[in-house]
Specification:
158 residues; mainly alpha; Arc Repressor Mutant, subunit A; 3-stranded antiparallel β-sheet; 7 helices
Length: 158
């Protein structure tokens, strides 16, 4: 049986290798100023057009402060812009600029390359099982977040 630390270690290795592939592909395509952590933000904005910082943070499952740092960098590199909502001036909306929108082809190709590499030797059935297991792992972690936000003891101390 694999120790739980071994599974978590492998998940970390997979993330590291996937990020390295993304960085190589971005460099090969001459895309400047992007890192793998920008991908989920860009994807959401490509899909939605314009989102508030809070909604963007919810969609990518990150804190508003983390998303703000990522948005700062993307704005600095000219890939997106911020503006105040006309209906609620307290809300900051984020949207892609033309250079940001022009990344969609590269973004989709790199995503496809990564997906093909990750799943290369797996059958459809294995991919389906893997997806189910990964979703259960995510739900376990989300449950832990909900418990800690409710002020209850962490699951490991019960």
């Amino acid at each position: 049986m694999i120790e739980p630390q071994g599974t978590v270690f492998r998940i970390g290795c997979i993330r590291e290798k996937a990020n390295a592939l993304i960085v190589r592909e971005l460099k090969r395509r001459g895309v400047q100023g992007l890192v793998p952590s920008h991908g989920s933000l860009l994807f959401q904005l490509l899909q939605e057009g314009s989102l508030s910082l809070n909604t963007l943070a919810e969609r990518v499952q990150r804190s508003v402060s983390t998303v703000t740092v990522l948005v700062d960098k993307l704005e600095e590199n000219g890939y997106l812009q911020r503006r105040r909502s006309e209906s609620d001036r307290r809300v900051t909306l984020v949207s892609l600029t033309e250079p940001g929108r022009s990344l969609s082809g590269n973004f989709l190709e790199i995503s496809r390359t990564l997906e093909e590499r990750v799943l290369r030797n797996l059958t459809r059935e294995e991919v389906s099982v893997l997806d189910g297991l990964l979703e259960r792992i995510l739900e376990n972690l989300r449950e832990g977040e909900r418990v800690s936000q409710d002020g209850e003891r962490p699951l490991s101390s019960r």
